[in-house]
C-alpha cells in the first residue's frame, strides 16, 4: 500500500477545489477540500493533513490568514501555502510571515512548480 | 448595435439567462479590459461585496459570470466540432474524464494536443487582458475565474497522458 501524503485544500470556490483536487489526486496525493475557513479548520483538526493549500478571501476577506494562524499554532510542522489572487508584490505586504504561511502560489497556479514544491515537502516529512 | 457584456448582464435576471445570451453570440463580442471592468461593475451593482460575512453564493456567481465569457472566447481556439466538448469540460472538471474519452478516438491524440496548445494560448491572451485591470474586486473575480480554466486544462493534460490515479 502506498503512503500518499494528505493535502487539504481550503477555498470557498468549489470549482477551484475540485480542479485542484483532481490535479493532486492525478499526481499521487490524497487530496480533500473544505469550502470555508471554519470548515477547513475542522478538517485540519480531524484529518491531520501533511500539507495545506489555503485561499485568503473566503467568508471574511482575511479568513485564510486567520485560520492559518491557528493551524500553524496547533501544528507548526504542517506547511500551509497561500493560493492567492493578489499580486506577488501585494502578497509580500499582507503579512505572509505574520499569518504563518510557508509560501505563496499566485493564481493561476503553476502546477508544475506547485507539484515540485509539494513533492519536496512530502519527501522531507 | 449589439449590447455590451455589461448591458447583457443588466438585462438578464440570472446566471442561466446571462449564459444563454452570451452563448448565442458564439464568441462574437469584444473582450477588452474596459469591457471586463464594465461587466464587473454591473455585477457589483447587483451583488455588492463586503469585507466580513461575505455572501458565498454571490461571490461564486461572480466567478461563474467571469467564466461564462472567458470560456466563450477560449473555445473559439478549437475546431467547431469539438467546441461543445471543451466548453463542457472547462465548465465542469467532473466532465473531463467522460468527454475526453468521447473525443479522443474521433479526433486523435495529435489533434487534441493541438487543441490544448491553442486553448493555452487563448487563456494566456485572456489573462493579459485581465492583467490590465487595476487591482480591485473586479480583477479578483476574473483572476479567480480564469484560474480554474487553467486548472482544468492541466487536468485534461493529465488525462490525455493516461488514466488519473
Supply the CATH superfamily name of chain A.
Response regulator
| CATH architecture designation of chain A | 3-Layer(aba) Sandwich
N- to C-terminal distance of chain A:
18 Å
Helix content of chain B: over 70%
Count of alpha/pi helices of chain A: 6
Query: What is the radius of gyration of chain B computed over CA atoms, rounded to a whole number of angstroms?
Result: 16 Å
How many domains in all of chain B?
1
The CATH class designation of chain A is Alpha Beta
- Biggest sheet overview of chain A: 5 strands, parallel
Q: Outline the low-pLDDT stretches of chain A.
A: none
Task: Enumerate how many helices of chain B there are, as a single number.
Answer: 8
Q: Which sequence of SSEs, written as H and E, runs from N to C of chain A?
A: EHEHEHEHHEH
Number of discrete domains of chain A: 1
The CATH topology name of chain A reads Rossmann fold
Rg result of chain A: 13 Å
Query: How many distinct beta strands of chain A?
Result: 5
Which terms summarize this structure?
heterodimer, A: 125 residues, alpha/beta, Rossmann fold, five-stranded parallel beta sheet, 6 helices, 46% helix, globular, B: 165 residues, mainly alpha, 8 helices
Amino acid at each position: 500500500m502506498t503512503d500518499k501524503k494528505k493535502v487539504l485544500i481550503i477555498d470557498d470556490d468549489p470549482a477551484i477545489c475540485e480542479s485542484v483536487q483532481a490535479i493532486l489526486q492525478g499526481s499521487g496525493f490524497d487530496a480533500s477540500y473544505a469550502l470555508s475557513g471554519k470548515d477547513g479548520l475542522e478538517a485540519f483538526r480531524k484529518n491531520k493533513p501533511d500539507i495545506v493549500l489555503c485561499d485568503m478571501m473566503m467568508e471574511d476577506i482575511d479568513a485564510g490568514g486567520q485560520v492559518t494562524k491557528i493551524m500553524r499554532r496547533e501544528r507548526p510542522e504542517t506547511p500551509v501555502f497561500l493560493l492567492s489572487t493578489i499580486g506577488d508584490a501585494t502578497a509580500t505586504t499582507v503579512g505572509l510571515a505574520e499569518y504563518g504561511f510557508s509560501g505563496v502560489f499566485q493564481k493561476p497556479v503553476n502546477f508544475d512548480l506547485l507539484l515540485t514544491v509539494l513533492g519536496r515537502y512530502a519527501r522531507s516529512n | 448595435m449589439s449590447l455590451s457584456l455589461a448591458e447583457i448582464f443588466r438585462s438578464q435576471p440570472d446566471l442561466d439567462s446571462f449564459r444563454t445570451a452570451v452563448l448565442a453570440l458564439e464568441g462574437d463580442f469584444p473582450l477588452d479590459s474596459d469591457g471586463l471592468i464594465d461587466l464587473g461593475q454591473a455585477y457589483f451593482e447587483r451583488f455588492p461585496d463586503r469585507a466580513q460575512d461575505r455572501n458565498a453564493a454571490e461571490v461564486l456567481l461572480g466567478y461563474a459570470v467571469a467564466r461564462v465569457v472567458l470560456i466563450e472566447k477560449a473555445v473559439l481556439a478549437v475546431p467547431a466540432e469539438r467546441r461543445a466538448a471543451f466548453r463542457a469540460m472547462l465548465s465542469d472538471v467532473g466532465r473531463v474524464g467522460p468527454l475526453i474519452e468521447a473525443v479522443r478516438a474521433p479526433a486523435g491524440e495529435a489533434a487534441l494536443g493541438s487543441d490544448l496548445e491553442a486553448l493555452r494560448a487563448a487563456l494566456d491572451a485572456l489573462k493579459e487582458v485581465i492583467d490590465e485591470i487595476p487591482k480591485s474586486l473586479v480583477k479578483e473575480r476574473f483572476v479567480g475565474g480564469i484560474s480554474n480554466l487553467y486548472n482544468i486544462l492541466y487536468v485534461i493534460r493529465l488525462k490525455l497522458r493516461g488514466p488519473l490515479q
